[in-house]
Amino acid sequence: MKLILAPMEGLTDPIMRDVLTQVGSFDWCVTEFIRVTNSVLPDHVYYNYCPELKTDGKTASGTPVHVQFLGNDANMLAANAERAVSLGAPAIDLNFGCPAKTVNKHKGGAVLLDEPEVIHTLVKAVRDAVSAHIPVSAKMRLGYLDENHTLENAHAIEDAGANWLTVHARTKADGYTPPAYWEKIHPIQDALKINVIANGEIWNYQHAIDCRKQSGCHDLMLGRGAVTTPDLTQCILQQSHKALLTWSELITLQIQFLTGPSKTELAMVGRYKQWLGMMSKAYPEAQDLWQVVKRIKSVDEMIIHLKQHLQ
């Protein structure tokens, strides 16, 4: 079974990837999407989204990082994919699942699921642009507003030469509201020859079991569940129904997170509070800590409070 860390805009940035791949057994992870419009992006953009390009395309713990693109211009997607590979990207992924209104308004992400022929063109352009040994994959939802083109889109991606397909088991209209319809991935798994990876609402070991059974997929992509329970991969692999990391061990990771690079101190504190809020779903200690640090705006002060919890 392969376990993959999902690309989540504003959440699984390089700092979070570094922390989560340090404690989790991920087979690979995927960057937040890089938006492609009408030009080949300068190198610093790639390094901003994927600093791991400077370290053989891997996180500090050795987990490969695949570069994800979002766009609708076949030539530009192909050119940017080629450039990313030249900089060290081990694989390219294409985003056909983002539900954001701004992205969809500019004909990117999930809105393209109403045009399977366009999806085929985009995937094929990227597949033709990069060397055969570089995997090209795609991530899609079940559909945009409905599921009328689900299998058509899946076949379009396969026929274009993708190495595998990840399916988020909801439509754009479903957003992120539970449940995820894992059973609706099963017909895709049955219809395709390439590997299909299931994604959506996998928060614990039991969810992983249920998702694999209902979807028919062997491999899983973990999103918010992996951020909420940083050792979720270990829980799945060791068949544990509860988190294995102690709160003290997790405090050490939080301090590491806070000392990572960030554009501004306020942004770092905000990112940390976002993570702490998510962890409160799995750790009661996080709820207590939140009450103490919710008004703090300084990284140093935040770290002082965290160290007190180590004692």
UniProtKB/TrEMBL annotation:
Its cofactor is FMN. Its EC number is 1.3.1.-. Residues 4-242 form the DUS-like FMN-binding domain. One of its GO terms (molecular function) is flavin adenine dinucleotide binding. FMN binds at residues 68, 139, 168, 199-201, 223-224. The keyword Ion transport does not apply. Keywords: Flavoprotein, FMN, NADP, Nucleotide-binding, Oxidoreductase, RNA-binding, tRNA processing, tRNA-binding. It is an enzyme of class 1 (oxidoreductase). Pfam families: Dus. The active site is at residue 98. It comes from the Bacteria. The record marks 35, 95, 176, 271, 273, 294 as: Interacts with tRNA. It catalyses: 5,6-dihydrouridine(16) in tRNA + NADP(+) = uridine(16) in tRNA + NADPH + H(+); 5,6-dihydrouridine(16) in tRNA + NAD(+) = uridine(16) in tRNA + NADH + H(+). The keyword 4Fe-4S does not apply. Belongs to the dus family. Belongs to the Dus family. DusC subfamily. Catalyzes the synthesis of 5,6-dihydrouridine (D), a modified base found in the D-loop of most tRNAs, via the reduction of the C5-C6 double bond in target uridines. Specifically modifies U16 in tRNAs. This is tRNA-dihydrouridine(16) synthase.
